[in-house]
Design goal:
Length: 208
């Protein structure tokens, strides 16, 4: 898509809160499956917690996988609270799947881009050009003849994405998660993706 290239066979590992021992971190192995995956011809995203190796989480997007990770942790917290354990309520937070897959780390994105020297992932390269223009404060060309728009930060009038409600469906939520991973869903969203990458770089620099 316009935000990322998703190469089949990609693997990464990140430490995140355990859903078994809530006060500990555990390695989560992330991978992207191509042909043969559940959602082929689209990529299948997979996350496996090291302390739950037989319970892989699969989704159509990075964010879809990591949303399931959060749900599993929150479900465990709620179950223990109902059983009388003195725990704070689950945190209300969202998660950016590509960041936890490592796809926005500069050295990783550079290596992934190197897999496409001929520029076959046209949507991605076009999106990268848009992000560079936005970073430079240049106007973007919008779909339609001669239309341009200047972009300001996180501005825009795009409505918030609908998330799953008590009467909603997993399909709705998965679609919203897929949008989170896509850099080509509107100007404001593409700017947000750029902002996440910049914030990530800043955290890396702060951490040394």
């Amino acid at each position: 898509n316009a935000g990322y290239i998703f190469p089949a066979g990609f693997e990464s590992r990140v430490n995140f809160r355990s859903s078994v021992q809530l006060d500990q971190l555990v390695a989560h192995e992330c991978s992207i499956i191509g042909e043969g995956g559940e959602y082929w011809p689209a990529p299948t995203f997979r996350v496996v917690a090291q302390d739950r190796p037989t319970e892989p989480l699969l989704a159509k997007s990075c964010t879809g996988c990591w949303t399931q990770v959060l749900k599993r942790i929150n479900s465990e917290i709620e179950a223990r609270r109902r059983a009388g354990e003195d725990l704070p309520p689950p945190p209300k937070t969202a998660i950016a799947g590509p960041e936890y897959f490592g796809l926005n780390q500069p050295e990783i994105s550079d290596q992934i881009e190197g897999l496409d020297p001929e520029g076959l992932c046209e949507t991605y390269w076009a999106g990268k050009g848009d992000r560079a223009a936005m970073a430079a404060g240049l106007p973007l060309e919008l779909p339609g003849k001669g239309m341009t728009k200047a972009v300001r930060g996180n501005g825009g009038s795009r409505k918030p994405k609908r998330r799953r409600s008590d009467t909603g469906s997993d399909t709705d939520e998965e679609a919203a998660a897929a949008e989170d991973d896509d850099g080509n869903i509107g100007i404001a969203s593409r700017w947000s993706a750029l902002g996440r990458a910049e914030r990530y770089r800043s955290r890396c620099e702060a951490d040394g």
